[in-house]
Amino acid sequence: MNPRIGKAKEVALKSWRLLKAASLTTADSIISLSLLRKGARPKPGSRTAWPKGRREQLYRDQQGLCMYCRCKLSLSALGATHIDHIIPVNQGGNNDRENLQLLCAGCNLRKSDRSDVEFRHRYRSLLPQRPSTMPARRILQAQFRRVTQDSPDAESYRRFKAGKYLTATQKINSGSLATGAVVALVIFVPINQTATPGDGSVLLLVSLALGAAAGLGVRLRARYTGKDQED
To answer: Could you read off the pLDDT of 21-74 as tens digits, one per residue?
Structure first.
């Protein structure tokens, strides 16, 4: 084996190990930055004394499933199942059975004081637009969060358009591209100095492929660790 090629492989292996560790650190840093600013939480309202058996009735009517995400609800776990007004009280809604539905804690907090029509319109890419209609399959909270981040009526989206800061998704995507570019350059530049002239194009393709893999790794790590959350 050509000594120059063997040395190049050794440098590439050491560089890859270093960059692998650096990419994981970069991913964690990007995720942490995306979680620095939290969105406003709805203010707690006054408690309502529901008629006896109302929660159980709604539970049976909805087959024990959340109206929006279709997750399995629990009547025994404290705070796990919320009674929600389809039309909020501050918009003229009442406590009649027809104006009530059961939601999980996540969907109820996300809906806040919006009406059912407003909520379904904002998440129209996930939810059917017909009132009192569940989605055909389970929707994960992470899917709601991604729509929240990228929605034109989201506060974080509007501020990003104004040039003030990035949303969580945009931070992670930017970090992924930056990581991929850095990995490609760090691998290509030192090895290219020791490689023969004819190997330049092959080395460039390999560097770009490894850079793309590193950037994709950062993006997937952010997504599948459950850290890809809304601001």
So the answer is: 555 545 544 544 444 443 333 344 445 667 778 999 999 999 999 999 999 998
Beta bridge pairs of residue 102 = 83
Query: Residue 92 — left, alpha, or beta (φ > 0 → left; ψ -120 to 50 → alpha)?
Result: left
Is 192 buried (19+), middle (13-18) or exposed (0-12) by CB count in 10 A? middle
What's the pLDDT band for 13 if we cut at 50, 70, 90? Answer: low
pLDDT value at position 144? 92
In the chain, the N- to C-terminal Cα span, in Å, equals: 53
What whole-number distance in Å separates Cα of residue 151 and Cα of residue 159? Answer: 12
| 3-class SS of residue 103 | strand
Find out whether 214 and 39 touch, Cβ atoms under 8 Å.
no
Q: At what angle do helices 168-194 and 3-34 cross, to 10 degrees?
A: 170
